[in-house]
Write a structure and sequence with these properties.
The complex is a heterodimer.
Chain A: E1 5-12, E2 15-20, E3 24-29, E4 43-49, E5 52-58, H1 59-63, E6 84-97, E7 100-113, H2 125-131, H3 140-146
Parallel strand pairs in A: 5-7
Antiparallel strand pairs in A: 1-2, 1-7, 3-6, 4-5, 6-7
Chain B: E1 2-8, E2 11-16, E3 20-24, E4 35-38, H1 39-43, E5 52-56, E6 61-73, E7 79-80, E8 94-99, E9 106-107, E10 113-114, E11 116-120, H2 122-128
Parallel strand pairs in B: 2-11, 4-6
Antiparallel strand pairs in B: 1-2, 1-6, 3-5, 5-6, 7-8, 8-11, 9-10
């Protein structure tokens, strides 16, 4: 039986978050990241991709508990089990939910294949975008429309 | 659209050229009737030595901006709106991120290659002027 990638583990320092493959749109080198003054503390910068300016967040904003302006995040950072392999370092991982995009700045990513311990929590893009305040937990669709380019 | 480009802290910023009346040299005196906004202070970044000043159209506001790089023409489609939710303020001072397509990379003074920059909102600068 062949194993397939079911999630990508995002790592930065001691933090790690597993994100479902279906939620990930692109993984890019962090070279094009541009810091933007007056942005919220959890925003590392912005990157232009496919005709859109996509805010890029620090992994701790996604994994940690202190999210400014967002709903109460779930406390657990998932522990990853299973077969992993190293892919890249210093990357931006673009996640998408119903047209809303955000980048996550990470040091490395690893593929998580099926057959992993079933207790490992895998996040979807909606959860991540809610944690950084892009999506409202109750009104995700409305916020997603706002996130599609209106400034 | 023509824009004035300048460097501030290693980042390229732009102002619509039609919003700029003139640029003052280092020794020039800011018109006494002008209200001034120090862009570095306004943006919360370190000031730069030798920053030039742009007097906005109408002459009432002078913006201490940074190091001028020149003027260039950009396509409006290159201006990507910045999502409002990424800012602390409800009204950030940017019209958007300028993202020049790879085929449109522009050479500027001193060998600067213009690829991305932040287009400022001159109206917000007028409001911020003291």
């Amino acid at each position: 039986m062949t194993s397939r990638t079911v999630a990508i583990e995002l790592k930065a320092g001691d933090l790690s978050v597993a994100v479902s493959v279906a939620s990930i749109r692109q993984i890019l080198p962090a070279l094009g990241l541009m810091a933007v003054p007056l942005s919220r503390p959890q925003v590392a910068g912005v990157v232009a991709r496919d005709g859109r300016a996509i805010p890029v967040y620090r992994l701790e904003s996604v994994a940690g508990s202190a999210v400014v302006g967002g709903p109460d995040p779930e406390p657990a950072t998932p522990v990853i089990h299973g077969t992993v392999e190293r892919l890249h370092a210093d990357l931006i991982v673009i996640v998408e939910h119903e047209g809303a995009l955000a980048g996550i700045l990470v040091e490395s990513t690893k593929a998580v294949r099926n057959g992993a311990d079933g207790s490992a929590r895998i996040f979807d893009a909606r959860t991540l975008l809610t944690r950084v305040g892009i999506l409202d937990g109750d009104c995700g669709q409305q916020a997603a429309q706002t996130a599609q380019g209106d400034s | 659209m023509q824009v004035l480009l300048f460097d501030l802290g290693g980042v390229i910023y732009a102002l619509k050229l039609e919003a700029v009346e003139r640029i003052l040299g280092l020794g020039d005196v800011i018109p006494p009737a002008s209200r001034t906004v120090d862009l570095a202070r306004f943006l919360g970044i370190d000031p730069v030595a030798g920053a030039h000043t742009a007097v906005l159209a109408g002459g009432e506001v002078a913006v201490v901006m940074g190091l001028p790089l020149g003027a260039t023409r950009i396509d409006p489609s290159w201006i990507l709106p910045l999502p409002g939710y990424m800012f602390e303020s409800d009204r950030p001072p940017f019209r958007g991120l300028i993202d020049v397509p790879a085929r449109g990379k522009m050479g500027l003074q001193a060998g600067t290659l213009f690829r991305t920059g932040l287009l400022l909102d001159e109206q917000r600068l007028r409001e911020a002027a003291g």
